[in-house]
Amino acid sequence: MLLFWNGIEIPVLIRAVAAFLTALILSLALGGKVIGLLHRHQHHGQPIRADGPQSHLATKQGTPTMGGLLILGTSVLSIILFANIRYHFVWVSLLVLLAYGLTGFIDDYIKVTKETPNAMTAKAKLFLQFMTAVAAVTIITAATPNASDTVLSIPYFKTVFNLSWLYIPFAVIVISGASNGVNLSDGLDGLAAGLLILAFSFFAVIAFIAGSPLAENFSFVYIPRSAEMTVVCAAIVGSCLGFLWFNAPKAKVFMGDTGSLALGALLGTVAVIVKQEILLAIAGGMFVIETLSVIIQVFWYKKTGKRFFKMAPIHHHFEQLGWKETTVVTRFWAAGFVFALIALSALI
Length: 348
Prior knowledge:
The protein is mainly alpha-helical. 67% of the residues lie in helices and 3% in strands. It has helices at 12-41, 54-59, 68-82, 88-114, 122-143, 167-185, 191-210, 214-217, 229-247, 256-273, 277-283, 285-304, 314-320, 325-344, and strands spanning 4-5, 8-9, 151-154, 159-162. The strands form two sheets. Strands 1-2 form a two-stranded antiparallel ribbon. β1 and β2 form a beta hairpin. The longest helix is centred in the first third of the chain and has 30 residues, at 12-41. The chain is globular and about 50 Å long.
């Protein structure tokens, strides 16, 4: 851990910039080699859903998956180098990242070896996700001062509400929900990576405020040592940006469940640590919309036997309307940026 220089502790912001640059450079330098390795071990790439957009069968066939390994590897190394991993919040974040990443890796591995778009059952994945989230939330709550360990911040109104014993199940749902929301968004080249860059950039700012004396000025709950999550978020942004170089249309590699499940879970974990779960729903508004589109589609189909959207998640609905993939991605990025700005307005 590079925490000190000539006996003086390096400020969080400097270490965050260093983590960002290190993760970015490593991603760009290693991306080609990782993609080559994935190509050699995935003869036909990620299986493409037959019930998905028909254009994907022609344009995406043969593209390797598990690109999340590049993001996880470079970000974890950067976090270990520049964050204080002796702090509970940092090593719990690493635990979540690796545990959810392993779950996604197993799912991706089964897909490519058996050449099927369906691998682990939903129940199996949810079980692993919930168990990891329960462990993480329990540790986070224990490491948070008693006065604020079970509170829910209400942004804009500058107040908090104590959820008491309901907080742990609520936080577990936040982490698992964020994981699945990002996973559902990972269906177009660059879509999830771009939205994650926006969301983690926002929470890098929030974590810095929540873990410093600035918290009182913004009516935030002060969480000691949570400023270290700024370094964690910066490392993820750097890795995602480097990955986007290879994932932008036409993608040379897909993130896969290896990356999307892990990064979504980490995003939820950061929100739980800094006590800004509601701001997560706002800053990550596109992930919420993607998730709701699937819920609505399933509910409506069971009720009426008809589809509410042409296809779900909703990014496929717009493809079916005739939008080009790059058009959908850039417009969703723009919407994600607006949501991040709305969330930032809570600081005013």
